[in-house]
Amino acid sequence: HLGQLDDLREQVDQINLQLLDLLSRRGELVAEIGRLKSSEGGTKFYDPKREEDQLRLVRQANRGPFTDAAISAMFKEIFKASLDLEETREQRKLLV
Amino acid sequence: HLGQLDDLREQVDQINLQLLDLLSRRGELVAEIGRLKSSEGGTKFYDPKREEDQLRLVRQANRGPFTDAAISAMFKEIFKASLDLEETREQRKLLV
Q: Which ipTM score applies to this complex?
């Protein structure tokens, strides 16, 4: 059983690295969206309607094993980290 | 600019679906690990050392744009959802 457990954990670690890669690409895209909004004079990055739209699409595609509530909780943390990224960049810009 | 914004958002939505797919596969693997532990008589699913090991690997691979702290926060939410999944299954088993 120990070999089996190690093998499963190795697969989880591989998925973690793929998640990191996707999250980082997503972070770059969101930063690009932020720059686009900034260049149009906007400074409001938090967009609850857009977040709700994203959650709806993801929930519609969800086939388990996670409940929709668990999926929403994970994505909300992703949204939060992305927003922090945007606000830090904006803050840095204001301080320059 | 609106077309550009829509295009970037479409790319984010596509990444969201890929994230959902990876998260769901990860959930299945963690459920399998839980079954393996259960069959060995264990009922303790929370394993802080294993979580710390996962975070270390992910932080080592992190090349931005997220800070290590932001990456850790997102992964901790993923760990939490996975643990809830395990505990719900275990609870269901105990109630049968």
A: 0.92
Domain ranges, residue B15:
2-95
pLDDT tens digit string along A29-84?
999 998 888 888 876 778 899 999 999 999 999 999 999 999 999 999 999 999 88
The verdict on a CB contact (< 8 Å) between A12 and B30 is yes
> Cβ separation of B85 and A65 shorter than 8 Å?
yes
From A8's Cα to the closest Cα of chain B, the distance in A is: 7
- pLDDT tens digit sequence for B2-43: 799 999 999 999 999 999 999 999 999 999 998 888 888 776
HEC sequence for chain B:
CHHHHHHHHHHHHHHHHHHHHHHHHHHHHHHHHHHHHHHCCCCCCCCHHHHHHHHHHHHHHCCCCCCHHHHHHHHHHHHHHHHHHHHHHHHHHHHC
State the smallest CA–CA distance between residue A43 and chain B in angstroms: 15
From chain B, pick out residues whose CB is under 8 angstroms from the CB of A50.
Answer: 9
What's the CATH code of the domain at A40? Answer: 1.20.59.10
Per the structure, how many domains does chain B have?
1
Measure in Å the smallest separation between the Cα of A93 and chain B Cα atoms.
16
Name the residue among B16, B11, B20, B61 with its Cα closest to residue A79. Answer: B16
